[in-house]
What does this fold into?
Amino acid sequence: MLGPVILAASRSDRMRRLISAAPVTKQVVDRFIPGETVDDIVPIIQELTSRGLELTMDVVGEDITTPEQAEAARDAYLALVDRLSALELGTRAEMSVKLSMFGQALPGGHELALANVRPVVEAAAAIGTTVTLDAEDHTTLDSMFAIHEELRKDFPQTGCVIQAYLFRTEADARRLAAAGSRVRLVKGAYKEPADVAYQQKHEIDKAYVRVLRILMEGEGYPMVGSHDPRLISIAQELARQAGRKPDEYEFQMLYGIRGDEHLRLAAEGHRMRVYTAYGTDWYGYFMRRLAEKPANLRFFVRSMISKG
It folds into this structure.
């Protein structure tokens, strides 16, 4: 299986230098990360929302090693809030954040990440939108959920992400599927050991359906993070069985993957949110996109060969 190999490469400085130096890399990265600055991304936001889509914005960058870098990440998101304010899109354009970017892995990281993310959540609420806390590797999740719970005391619309491949996730879903909650379910994109996570695709898919059923039958707002046509169909059926209206859940997919499906779901009346990342520190994000789906890797390899 190539996925674990690629995920290991995402932590390799040598591979980072090699791939970053390849002439074709920027062309392929642009497929998934359509800009480096807020100015780059505003036309993308305007284009997608004009086509009936919604967005969640991610400023890429996770390898934070100093408190100053964490503060810079906070400021980058605050700059994004300023631009979103002028667009007056409300919840049609929200934000996703990784707490590692806000200093979670540094000494005193839990408190540091909470202190840095709170102003972003507050600023988002002030312009009528919200923030979702992305899930990272399993060692960070207790801290993420605790920060999520703390933020929801003042900003109950704050969302979080759970990952189907982790054994703990069904219990997390039951706890989170309460009135007012917003929960995005994804398969999972980190290299996790066999004692905490399912390793085979069919096991992960079955876990995804079990967790999705919990969310659909709960009282919260499920966000279905998947590009898998079969899981999308199952999500629609589970929503129907649970008596949910189209505005009581949503689909989320990554920018650059299955764009026609984004438009199809929106045209059918579903809420369809595009996870759109931008920034200069793209390597870790890009490598996980390659690991998630063999077609993404094939696309990259073909591009390198054709441009070689």
Remarks:
- The longest helix spans residues 67-87.
- Confidence is low (pLDDT under 50) at residues 303-308.
